[in-house]
Predict the 3D structure of the following.
Amino acid sequence: MLQTHLIRLARDKSADRVKHARRYMKAIFEEAIEHGLLDKNPARKLALPAELRPKDKPVLTWTQLQEY
């Protein structure tokens, strides 16, 4: 279920966003383990999807820049 969520994120979001989501999932489950709520981390074996979009690099046009 977690892997499916990462794959869905990879369809719309950039590689950096998917990597952050994976890191947060692992950290959340590690915290749950420390508090005794879980025995094992279900996110420990999450793999990054093979198809990751490149990082978004928005660029303003000269007109947009002059408006600011």
Notes: The mean pLDDT is 91.
